[in-house]
Write a structure and sequence with these properties.
The protein is of the alpha+beta class. It has one domain. It contains 1 helix and 3 strands. It has a 3-stranded antiparallel β-sheet, with helices on one face. It starts with 5 loop residues before the first strand and ends in an 18-residue tail after the last strand. The model has no long low-confidence stretch (mean pLDDT about 90).
Length: about 90
């Protein structure tokens, strides 16, 4: 069975500005949300520093989102919710 794909978005702030990135990952079984957050934060901070050598020190995380990467069907007005009756 294939693991669930997750879409993440992170915004990091250094004194010189904000930097945002996003991606999709399929974490290994057993990895926690906290471990995934730390991995994304570390990788993106290093990536932004490689691109902009003026970024020094550790950034502040302004935003982080991690959600299953799936499209939810819109609810049609007047039809029952897929979870049962309203």
């Amino acid at each position: 069975m294939q693991s669930t794909a997750y879409h993440w978005v992170i915004t990091l702030q250094w004194p010189s500005g904000l930097f945002t990135a996003d991606g999709v990952t399929r974490p290994a079984p057993g990895i926690t949300r906290a471990q995934l957050y730390t991995a994304v934060r570390t990788e993106m901070a290093e990536d932004f520093r490689r691109r902009d050598r003026s970024l020094v020190g550790e950034p502040v995380v302004v935003f982080f989102s991690l959600e299953p990467d799936e499209v939810l069907s819109p609810q049609v007005p007047g039809e029952p919710c897929s979870g049962g009756e309203r």
